[in-house]
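DM from R.C. (forwarded with permission)

"hey, sorry to bug you on a friday — could you get me a structure for this? deadline for the figure draft is monday and I only need the backbone to look sensible"
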Amino acid sequence: MIRLFESRARRIQRLPSVRCVFCDLDGTLLTSDNTVLDVVADAVSEMRRHGIRLVLASGRTDGFTRRYAADLDPEAPVISLNGSLVKRADATVLLQAPLPPAVFTLLEEFQHTVDGAALSWSLFTVEGTMSLDERPVLPRYLRAREEEMFRVGSLRPYYQQTVAFCAGGPYIAIQKLSVTLARRYGSRLQRITYQSGSGSDRYYLEVRLRHVNKATGVRAVLEELGIHRRESAAIGDYTNDVEMCKFTGVSAAMKNGNNAVRAAADLVTSKSHSDGGAADFFRMILRHRTAFR
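My reply, with the result:
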């Protein structure tokens, strides 16, 4: 790892050579109402005029993320679902990390149990979000755009292209499913359980491959663009941004970022996402770039 024996001061010296910035969406680029402030959009436009690419890297779906990429840098790839799916600007697949087929054999077995019958299932695939339900039970940040969501008669045809799945329902059923997956697959899968913001007995279990994260998506994009990782930067606000921030040549955490990402990043913005804090980092890159030319 290039960061292992380097100080933050040394990494910050890479700011003038940055050619590509990887940026999280929620809590970073977007305000709480899912808008991009003009000050942020203007800073992105200025970066592009200086030949610096902006690549969005989000835990959201490809379609949700792409709608912002289309306005900010329409020729850039899009990293979605925390690196499980990466698509080029023309929506062709650059990288996908499908779950092992045997996982779905286990899921089908579980669906036929009393607990399994109480759950809503959604598969996140290259083609979109597939569900047996007309209104899938999903956490807010995974609720895709209408054109991305499909009600299907069977999930089976989509197993081979599924990069992540989410089950929603009562706590006991979610816990039993999580334990069943852990016993069968151990550390191969990343299992994230969380409660619905409604405060009701609705929980979610999100599952994807453990070795996949935003950094694996960043690596694929840099290879595609022919840019060295030392010439890249990242900015984020949450734990799922940590690996990305560690992987790139230099990184920033948002003022509103949690402790994990603030510890991993080289800089912390002086403003939060609601005040356009990402623009400060973009402008810092531009200042260093023009100062050394």
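R.C.: lifesaver. Residues 8-96+212-291 form a domain with the Rossmann fold fold (CATH 3.40.50.1000).
me: no worries. The two ends are 29 Å apart (CA to CA).
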